[in-house]
Design a protein that fits this description.
There is one protein chain. By secondary structure, the protein is α+β, with helices and mostly antiparallel strands. The chain has two domains: about 1-50, no CATH class; about 50-110, HU Protein, Chain A. About 35% of the residues lie in helices and about 25% in strands. Strand 1 (about 55-60) and strand 2 (about 65-70) form a beta hairpin. Helix 1 packs across helix 2.
Amino acid sequence: MDKKGQPMQQITYTKKDVAKKTAEKLGQKIFQTEEIVDGVFTVLREMMSGDEASIRIEVRNFGVFEVKPTKAKPRARNPRTNEEIFVPARRKTHFKPGKLLKEVLKQPVD
């Protein structure tokens, strides 16, 4: 919410936006950085979707991506119907920001 109580507008960045900003920062052509950025995200996705139950990818000065197993919930409840259902065990993702990113995010919003 902003100062007037209105919901704040959310900005969505795409992989192409990441490639553009990377190209600007490195003084490269977009088509060169698009291939690299796409490759990095493909490798991260492949690593995170591996067979291991628990995975941790640490990117220094940025943060940690984790894949953690969840427990099965044999007695979960559907809130609409109040029906008891079984929720199987699965894996979930989690991101924990690194020290530098955490410090920036702690700053008050103007």
